[in-house]
Each structure stands twice: as structure tokens, then as C-alpha cells.
Write a structure and sequence with these properties.
It is built from seven helices and no strands. It has 128 residues and is an all-alpha fold.
Length: 128
């Protein structure tokens, strides 16, 4: 296990293991809230850059919050079935993987359109 050697190293340095866990939990919550809330801070720049109106961006953010709320019962089920470590690792990977294509998005709803999203991003012609 990773926790036993880590706890021993922290104990040797005079740091209680609970402080490391609290720090990791804080960073996890901070990164998740930043991933969820950051597009709201960039509402106007996104509209200016891509020509989207506020309604298009807000509806995508509303859908994101709805999905976030609907996932809570399923997350609890996964924790009971697979354990906290596997569930948290999967959640971290999904958050990181979900935000990775953001810089390549060029039109509203592109990320929802499926596998052809990447090929649409590579097309540099006029959007019509």
C-alpha cells in the first residue's frame, strides 16, 4: 500500500498523516470547483472570441451543473461497490479528460456532437 510508507515518511518528518490527507482533499475540492466554475468567469471572453451569445454559453453551463448533481447517487454507489480510491481516481481522470479538449472547441455544442468533434475542430474553413 502507498499509505503505509507515506505515513512513515511523514511521521519521520514530524507531520501527521491526517494533514496530508486534508491537504489532498483540499486540492481535490479546489480543482473540481475550478473545473466546474471557471467557464462562468470567462463568459464574456468566450462570447467575444467565438461569437457565442450568453444564452448558448449559459445553457451549456446549466447542463453541466445538472449532470454534476445527477451523478451524486451514482458516485455513492460506486464508492460502496468499488471503494473510495478507485472512485476518486476515476473521477480525477474524467475531470482531466473532460477539460482537455476545451481549447479545441470552436462552436457551441461541438463537444456534444460525438467523435467527429475532433475532425470538425481541424477544419479551418468558415463556419456556416
Amino acid at each position: 500500500m502507498f499509505s503505509s510508507p507515506l505515513a512513515a515518511r511523514l511521521r519521520h518528518r514530524g507531520v501527521h498523516y491526517a494533514r496530508a490527507i486534508a491537504g489532498a482533499t483540499f486540492l481535490t475540492m479546489l480543482s473540481a470547483s475550478a473545473a466546474l466554475g471557471m467557464p462562468g468567469a470567462f463568459l464574456r471572453p468566450l462570447g467575444d472570441e467565438f461569437g457565442w451569445n450568453t444564452e448558448q454559453i449559459s445553457s451549456a453551463l446549466a447542463l453541466r451543473f445538472v449532470l454534476f448533481g445527477l451523478m451524486a447517487p451514482f458516485s455513492a454507489m460506486r464508492i460502496e461497490r468499488f471503494g473510495r480510491r478507485r472512485t476518486m481516481t476515476t473521477a480525477h481522470l474524467l475531470v482531466a479528460g473532460g477539460g482537455a479538449p476545451d481549447p479545441q472547441t470552436g462552436r457551441p455544442g461541438q463537444r456534444l456532437s460525438g467523435p467527429q468533434s475532433t475532425s470538425n475542430t481541424l477544419y479551418s474553413g468558415p463556419s456556416g
